[in-house]
Structure formats: C-alpha cells, structure tokens
Design a protein that fits this description.
- There is one protein chain.
- The protein is an alpha/beta fold and about 750 residues long.
- Among the domains are: about 160 residues, no CATH class; about 90 residues, no CATH class; about 60 residues, no CATH class.
- The chain has 37 helices and 15 strands.
- Strand 14 and strand 15 form a beta hairpin.
- It is elongated, with a radius of gyration of 37 Å.
- The structure holds zinc ion.
- The site of zinc ion has 8 residues, from helix 14.
Length: about 750
C-alpha cells in the first residue's frame, strides 16, 4: 500500500509540472517578456527559423577565407532530420544549402504571402522529410526554448457584472473551501468567478496592447539594448507594430472596455498561457493528406461559450465566438502532403489567405498568418498550372535523389549498420555511391566544360564528362588534382553555375529505394566473412553480375572511376613508404645548403645539423639527384648549384635567417627544395621493390611464420608500409596487404609513370 501511495505521489508530482503551464496574468506576462524578449516575441516564421538554427547550427566551411566562396557549406541536418526518428531523412549538401537559404529567407518580414512546396520525384523521401521536420518543430515549440504565449481571457464575473451576482458562485466556493483541501476548491471557486475564453487564433497577448499605443509602450518596457534596437529597426518585427488581434479578442476588448470603463481592468482579465502544439489534434499544426475529405463545416463556434459570453455581457451580438479551421493554425503550420486529391482544392482555397492574409468567415474577416508548406511530385504541377496568381505565391524547393556521395554512404550505414565499411577496402564504398550517383547526373555539364575546357588533361583522375569532378564539388570538395590555372578560374560565377545545374539533376536514374536494393545485393553476395569488397568486386558487379544496371551508368564511367582509384591508391602506397624519409630529407637539405658555401675537397661541421661533412662532388651530386633527377646535364647541375648558393647568401641567410629570425626549415629556399625532393622521392619510392619478387611474397606472408625467413631490410620495409597504410589511410591489415599486391600486380607504377 505504501508503495502504491509513493507511486501515486510521484504521479501527482509529475502533474504539477504541467500545472506550471497554467495561465499567468498579463502583468506577469510582461515581466516574462521583459526577461526573455527575443523568445516571447516571435511569430511563426521567426520561431521556425530559430528551430532549424538551434538543431542545425552554423555549418562548416572547409575553405574559410576563399575569396570566391559562394557559401556552399556543410550543414549537419542529423539532429533535425535523423536523430530520434524511425525513418530518418538524409539531406545532401545541395538540399541542405537550399533549405538553409529558405530558412534564412523566413527572416525579414515579407514572407507571409508564400507557400513553400518541396518538389521531388517518387522515392526521394520528401514525405519523410516533411514529417520529420514537423515532428522536430512540435518538439521544439513545446520545449522551454520554443515556448511562446497565447491569449486566454479570464472574464471576472464580479468585475463585468458590477458585483450583481457575486453571491451565488462564491458562497459555494466558500463552502467548499471550508471542507475541501485547498487546490480543487480554489479551482472550483475560480471557475465560478471567471469565465475562461480562449483565443482560437492563438494571438500573442502582446497584440492586445492597442496598436496605436504599442510603440510607446514597448519603448517604456524595454531597456535601451540590442533587442530594443532590433525591435524598432528590423523588418522581422514589423508584425509587432502592424498586426491586430483576432476579431474575437478585439470585440471582447471593446465590449469589456465599454462595460468596466477602464482599460486597466480589462487588461487584468487578459491572461497568457503557453501555446501548445499538437499535430494529432490539429492544434497549431495541421497536416492534410490527399485523401482527407474537405470539411462540410467551414465555420466553427462554441455554442455554450457563446451563450455564456452573451449572458455575461448582456448582449448576444457584441462578441461573436466564430472562427474558421485556419484559425487553429494561425501563428502555426498548415501543411499539405502532396498536391492531389482533396489537397488540390485546399491549395486553391489558400489563394485569398496567401495573397491577402485574410478571408471571410461569414461576414467577418479573419486574418491568418501561418507557415504554409507542402510536398509534391513534379507531375502534379499540372494541378496548379493555370492559377497564375497562386503560382506567383509558391516558392518551389527542389528535393532530389542524393547527389553527394558522403550522404549516399551515410544512408547505407544507417540501414545496414555502421560496420558495413569494414567489408570494403577504403574508398570502394564511396566509389559504389559514386556509381549510383553517376546515373542521376545530366550527361553533359556546360558549366564544367566552359571552365575546364578539354577534359582530356585530367584523364588520370576524371571521366570525360567530368562527373567525378562534379560529384566532388557537390560534396564540397575542390579536388587537389586540378591544376593551378583551373583552380584560379574556379570563380564564384562558375561555382554558381555548377551548383545551379543540380536543380535539373537527381530527378531520374537510380532512386533512393533502387540504390538500397542494389547495395543490398552487392553486400549480401560479396561482403561475406573474411572477404573484402574491392574495386574488382565492384566493377564485376556492375558489368557481369548485374549488367542491366550498367545501362543506367554513363559510358566509360566505371573505367574512369577505376583509373582514378588506381592513381589514388598508388599515391597512398608511395606515401606510406616515403614518410620514412622525412627526417632524412630535412637533414640532407640543410647539409646541402651549408656545404654549397665551401670548396669541394674540404670538410666542415654543419651548423644546422651538427653533422661532420666531407664536401665532395659525389656528396653534392647524391643530393642533387633527388632535386634535379639523375639524367640532368653537368651544365644544368653547375648552374643550379650556383643559383641556389646565390639565393642562399643573398636572401635565405642574410634576410630570412639573420634579420627575420626564421629557422632554416621555414625559409622559402628550403621550402622549394623540399618540394622537389619529395616529388622525386615519392615518384621512385616503389622502384626498388617492384622488381623484387621477395617483396611481393613478404607482403603475402606478413603475419605468418614464414615472414621471419625474409631478410631484415625487407621485413622492416614491409612492416613499415603496412603499418602506415593502416594508420594513415584507414586500412585494416588484410586490406593493406591486398592493396599492396594490387599495386604490384597491376604494375600501377608503370601505368602512371610521368
Ligand atoms: Zn484572439
């Protein structure tokens, strides 16, 4: 029994929290408003904007300070559209940027007269998107950070009736007070004393300050701070000085003023309570499906309340408690899921409301400010054609199949588990996504062709249609393989043109559902225990296992993808071997620069490294071979030596080191030589191993007992290489071995020899 009491007590306790939601008198509301002005004074557009910004944040710019930036940056929509939802929606970078610019457009005052329609092909997930968005809005709007207030009148009978009927109600109240235990009796007494009249339009209580007096009133209420400055200057807050309360609130205000004769008394009857959103009840947020029938009862009322108001005011005509369904989403969201069936009628009905912000409820003009939004299929466009005045009010936001490979991969991870990456060699999973996306792009890109000209020069890294370049850009990456010239010409104008091409892409090709099926097929059949999905597996899948899929992939794309992959892993393997020499390079270069200042045949201790140097022709040539290549002419070698020495004495030593106090490794000359050295090292780092059959076998035998039979040098090199591939490029041991064998067996060094 005690246990049950305790549980009951907890339950009661938790309900007290809801009690905090009870209405507060107008003066308390003003205190609250003064304390949190930016939060309490928000219309639907402002709060929707704040909601998205709260979940998504500011975004990440991978190229800060890029003067040609068009602000095409990475936003993380996971908290808004993925977290906590049964059916997540993944916004690719293109859609995320479109959505953000729509959200930014919600600020600034002029946006009431619009309906936002998200327009996209079947299978792009647009309904999921809208559902998730609205769910998060509901969550936010009902949380402390998103709470706004609405008017609820507490008509004080004694005040309105001038004391005439004080007896009846309060005698019962006093009786209950004596016997009952507080709470309930208070409530009962309140109910007798007050007639509660909610505002069906969810008006902000602030609107009940007469419009003419508002500027002065708000000026008095707020300190001279940033908020007050925004309030008086920003377009966002035009509504505060422009809007009137609904006809019910204004007629009630007038009638009460007439009866009690004093605005202060009328104000004392205004209360504020949190504006609660409940999509299922259609409170503040309503979503219509095409099959939802149109209501036969366009005008809503409340006969009991109407009678009570009439009795209290002794006039049944002064205040008409009459409103439309639109009032229920005033200051909230009205959404249409697909523009067909009955939703087509609904869209047309919105016409007056959207263009004038007002419509007729019987003879009364009702004002409606809502956020109107919806989703539609491109083919339903015919349903709105021919209504010019309406289509001017529609802002379409394109929602397509995913066009950025990292988002596409994120979808697979979400469906098949975070671990799927372990079944793929690095880069291969991403390449699968690229194959899928290639089917969704337009064949030619005028913007890229104008910019790059002849695609032939990038054939090592890119396909002839430059799809791989485009995908990189859509993912927010400017590829490192672009030459200096093209990098420089990648202007804001070109960027805008490239991004604009996405507006016509992602409407066909493999749909979101297709790609999941295709991925499942590949993964289930090839990603078995102990085997890795390689580039070979991937290409064979699209050419041999599912040749019918290849028809949707642009000609030559798979080959180009493979070539780019080969080039990339060759760089990885080289990088993994070369890193070993970094310290050596610095030492060589410092010694070389120091030695240049001495006659050959002498010895000296290098002041940078402390090495004792025998400065001979072969010592210098040994380092120059890395800087100039081995087959350089003797002439060029001498010339280079003289130039370098001149530069060293005239600038490096005298200026940079002695005057500016730089370390030698930070000087320009050192940097230039370092670049040359690294380039040549990387290029040839694999050469000693390629012809060596032992090397290949040692890679194969790594981590077996056999490995110990190889000589020390090979064991060290192989261990070093495989460790680096794992540390730097995310391979596991098996993957690292496979990729080394792949490089050797396919003779990639030969294929990419400069
Ligand atoms: Zn109202």
């Amino acid at each position: 029994m005690d246990e049950v009491r305790r549980i009951m007590k907890n339950l009661a306790g938790s309900q007290e929290i809801e009690d905090q939601e009870r209405a507060i008198p107008f003066d308390e509301f003003l205190v609250l408003m003064r304390r949190h002005p930016a939060r309490t004074i928000r219309n639907i557009h402002q709060i929707f904007h704040d909601m998205v910004k709260t979940f998504v944040g500011e975004g990440v710019d991978e190229y800060p300070g890029d003067p040609e930036s068009i602000n095409f940056i990475g936003f993380d929509f996971t908290p808004l559209l993925v977290d906590g939802s049964d059916q997540p929606f993944f916004a690719d970078r293109l859609f995320a940027n479109r959505l953000m610019s729509m959200i930014d457009g919600l600020r600034g005052g002029a946006q009431q007269n619009k309906i936002y329609l998200f327009d996209g092909p079947p299978g792009c997930g647009k309904s999921t998107f809208l559902n998730n968005l609205l769910r998060k809005f509901e969550e936010y709007a009902n949380s402390p950070a998103g709470t706004r207030y609405e008017v609820v009148w507490h008509l004080d009978r004694s005040l309105v009736e001038g004391g005439r009927s004080e007896e009846g109600g309060s005698r019962l109240g006093r009786l209950l007070e004596r016997h009952g235990e507080s709470g309930d009796a208070d409530d009962m007494q309140d109910r007798q004393r007050f007639l509660e009249v909610p505002c069906p339009s969810h008006d902000n209580p602030l609107l009940l300050i007469p419009r003419k007096r508002r500027p002065e009133f708000l000026d008095d209420l707020f300190e001279d701070d940033q908020f007050k400055w925004n309030l008086s200057t920003s377009k966002d807050y035009d509504w505060v000085f422009r809007d009137n309360p609904c006809t019910i609130c204004s007629s009630l205000y007038q009638a009460l003023l007439h009866r009690v004769g004093d605005a202060g008394r009328v104000m004392s009857m205004i209360h504020a309570r949190p504006y609660r959103f409940d999509r299922r009840l259609g409170k503040g947020i309503t979503v219509f499906n095409p099959g939802d029938r149109l209501t036969k009862q366009p005008v809503l009322t409340n006969a009991v309340l109407q009678r009570r108001i009439g009795t209290l005011l002794q006039d049944s005509n002064q205040v008409r408690y009459l409103f439309s369904r639109y009032a229920r989403t005033n200051n909230g969201i009205y959404a249409l899921m697909d523009i067909k069936g009955f939703n087509r009628e609904r869209l047309l009905e919105l016409h007056n409301i959207i263009s004038d912000g007002v419509h007729k409820v019987e003879e009364i003009e009702e004002r409606v400010y809502s956020l109107f939004m919806g989703v539609m299929n491109p083919e339903d466009n015919k349903n709105i054609r021919g209504f010019q005045s309406l289509s001017d009010r529609i802002e379409f936001i394109n929602i397509s199949y995913v066009l950025d490979s990292s988002t596409e991969v994120e979808i697979y991870r979400n469906i098949f588990g975070r671990h799927i990456g372990e079944s793929f060699l690095p880069r291969v999973l991403n390449n699968f996504a690229r194959v899928i996306i290639s089917s969704r792009l337009n064949e030619k890109s005028p913007a890229l062709l104008d910019w790059i000209g002849d695609a032939e020069k990038y054939k090592l890294y890119c396909d002839e249609n430059l799809h791989l370049l485009k995908m990189a850009i859509y993912t927010g990456i400017i590829p490192v393989w672009l030459d200096e010239e093209d990098r420089k010409n990648f202007t804001a104008r070109i960027r805008r043109r490239v991004i604009a091409e996405a507006e016509t892409e992602g409407q066909s090709g493999f749909s979101g559902r297709d790609s999941i099926d295709i991925f499942h097929d590949l993964y289930a059949n090839s990603g078995r225990e102990g085997r890795m999905i390689t580039m070979d597996t991937l290409c064979a899948f699209f050419t041999r296992a599912r040749p019918e899929l290849a028809r949707q992939i642009p000609d030559g794309f798979l080959e180009s993808l493979r070539r780019q992959y080969n080039y990339q892993i060759l760089q990885e393997v080289k990088e993994s071997l070369y890193y070993y020499n970094e310290e050596r390079i610095a030492r060589d270069l410092k010694n070389y620069l120091f030695a240049l200042n001495y006659e050959t045949g002498t010895t000296a201790v290098c002041s940078y490294t402390g090495d004792k140097l025998e400065i001979t022709e072969s010592f210098l040539a040994g380092i120059e071979n890395h800087l100039l290549g081995e087959d350089v002419s003797e002439n060029r070698r001498q010339e280079f030596r003289a130039e370098t020495q001149r530069e060293y004495t005239s600038r490096t030593l005298t200026q940079e080191i002695m005057v500016e106090g730089l370390d030698i490794s930070m000087t320009k000359l050192f940097g230039d030589l370092h670049k040359r050295y690294v380039f040549s090292l990387k290029n040839r780092v694999l050469d000693p191993f390629l012809g060596n059959a032992n090397f290949r076998r040692a890679v194969k035998d790594f981590a077996t007992d056999n490995f110990r039979t190889y000589d020390r040098k090979i064991r060290d090199d192989v261990t070093f290489l495989l460790d680096n591939l794992q540390d730097k490029f995310g391979y596991n041991e098996q993957g690292a071995r496979e990729v080394c064998l792949y490089v050797v067996d396919n003779e990639l060094t030969e294929k990419f020899r400069d």
